[in-house]
Design a protein that fits this description.
Blueprint lengths: L1 H13 L27 E7 H11 L3 E7 L12 H9 L2 E4 L8 H8 L4 E4 L35 H18 L4 H27 L7 E4 L5 H7 L2 E5 L13 H14 L3 E5 L5 H10 L2 E6 L14 H17 L1
Parallel strand pairs: 1-2, 1-3, 3-4, 5-6, 7-8
Helix pairs in contact: 2-5, 3-4, 5-6, 6-10, 8-9
This protein binds zinc ion (ZN).
Zinc ion binds next to loops.
Amino acid sequence: MRLLLLALLLVGCAAPAATPTPLPRPPTAPAPVVSPPPTKRLSVVATFSILGDLVRSVGGDGVELTLLVGPGQDAHTFQPSPADGAKLARADLVFENGLGFEGWLEELYRASGSRARRVVVTEGIAAQKGGPAHAEGEAEAGHSNGELDPHVWQDVRLASHMVGRIGEALAQADPASAALYRANAERYQQELRTLDAWVVDQVQSLPEARRTLVTNHDSLGYFASRYGFTILGTAIPGVSTEASEPAAADLVKLIGRIKSAQVPAIFVENVANPKLMERIAREAGVAVAPPLYTDALGPPGSPVDSYPKMVRHNVSTIVGALRA
Ligand code: ZN
């Protein structure tokens, strides 16, 4: 008897006799959520602005993105502060270029105590060596300084590789949104295929003899390889801006090469002091083109605040200055 009573009580608890009629949904109530509920936003660090823009394009609202080296800043000579260590300590994921671009990162990461997963986005790319090895006739002469060239993003197809790496890493870190990240990456890669074709098309309008570049540091090696340019020389030797004043004899040689190649213009970069290039241009009797955005984007809201805009700006500037 007591057992029966208990059973009745339990049933009573599970299914109340008088089920209240559910209130009608007010007309302003949001539609029931059918998509998976948003998961925790990933805290993501990108080491520099160009990479950050690729991460933002793939991660969208799913990631909370923090940059270490901001727009207009030079990653080669960057000096991290304790605040940068704190950014790493808070992160779930750190996206880095690799190939020696962020020489300061290893120590900063260690000191920060961060447990973030590090993703080297250039992994899987056959890296080129820097130095004036791109210059015609010098490829076999052993002029390459042997350093790996980190400026992979200047070849749009290689930027697309980076985007694929970003998509996979985000998908692994946040499996609930994996399909979204992969779809974003694929859509963006399609946009980059169109952009790459546009660059090839623009360069076609330039006579082959004019496809010659002189820049501040060796930042356009991958661009030159992909789009058929020759790097005639750089003001600062090497793939980093860290080098001090170039030797006077090297500058004289460079000026001689510029004169004999009859290039109409040489290029300054947004991350480098333009004074040296201006001096070289004066002595060689050539023009200085508007700055190229080589290692960093322009500030937000500027015409060069995204990777595709940066590529379009650079290519238009190069083609315009060399066709003149
Ligand atoms: Zn650089």
